[in-house]
Amino acid sequence: MSIRIAYCTGFWCTNIGNAFFSLGVEHVLKDILGSENVTTVSDFQTYTTGYGKRLYPDKNQLEYISKLDVDYLVLAGPVISKYFLGLWEKILLDLENRGVRYMILSAGIMKMTDDSLRECQMFFEQHPPFILSSRDHKTYEAFGKYAEHAYDGICFSFFTPDYYSPVPIRDKYMVMNFDKIAEPRVWLDDEASDNSFLFDGKQCHVVREGLLTKVAMKTDRLSDALIYAASILPQKRRDDRIGDYTVIRTDHRFHPHFRKKIYSQRNSFCADLPYGYLELYANSSLTVSDRVHACAVTMAYGHPAMLFSETNRVGLLERVGAGDISNHPVTLDIEFLNNEKKKMVDWLRKNIEHHD
Q1: Which of 53, 94, 348, 352 has its CA 20 to 30 A from that of 34?
Q2: 242, 187 Cβ separation under 8 angstroms
Q3: Which positions ≥6 away from 63 have C-beta within 8 Å?
Q4: CA–CA separation, 271 vs 282, rounded Å?
Q5: What pLDDT shows up at residue 51?
Q6: CB neighbours (10 Å) of residue 81?
């Protein structure tokens, strides 16, 4: 008997990195079940303003997800947060009353208080997901025990090379992706230092700049507010080339679309669809970023990346052996990564195809 799944995805315009793992989830589900049995639908939308306020669904907003005629609803990404019950509790209970269960793939925890953690765990205990596959070990430890089937998995953004085939770009370049904190100063010379690493036969120095950068690396809301407020001020001119490499600057936040923030430097890139980003990261000689998924996709294609962030999202990179990525660029062991991907897909296939 075939299984019909509705997969909810969205929030690409506020963080295009969400698309990277979303497309990975869709690819894997269709590989297991066939494309005719997997329908992708829009997530239950909320938005975050440029100044960091979370906007909940409007009273007049259509909610149709609870009425979908499917066997399972699939959620993905860091949906387990202090907002989870406010967004999903009624929908999941309405589906449960019709015999429809839910799965969470590439599951992560984000913006969680002690109270909301307990409330979410209580809900999961009383209404367990059929499948939970985590993107980091911390999420698996906190919520895997409540699922009927749980797997200490990896982020589905690492499946990007399986669903997107890039073409070569006729330029040597590195990508700077900083839309949450100030871009660090980067230069090449022959002198080693505590802040340098070997890159293309030279010492590459990467140094944080700005008094608030270290604070902003530890939080989302403060950095969001600061980066937009600072964009109205004159910006320091950054190098367009470093050594023999063009510098391309990507911004993952298409909305709110502040042109002064996005295009303050040459060779800046921002889009409402993910494919241009995938093309750029797949051909990047080095990606330096404050976004975990920019690093994940770059490394999935076999290239080095370095992360400037101290939030718990780094766990999804630690899970694939990139635990040192905040100290220096890391290149993944692709054989190890492919083995982890295969093990997770085999596990998903077994548990989905043999559902009750």
Answers
A1: 94
A2: yes
A3: 44, 57, 91
A4: 16
A5: 47
A6: 19
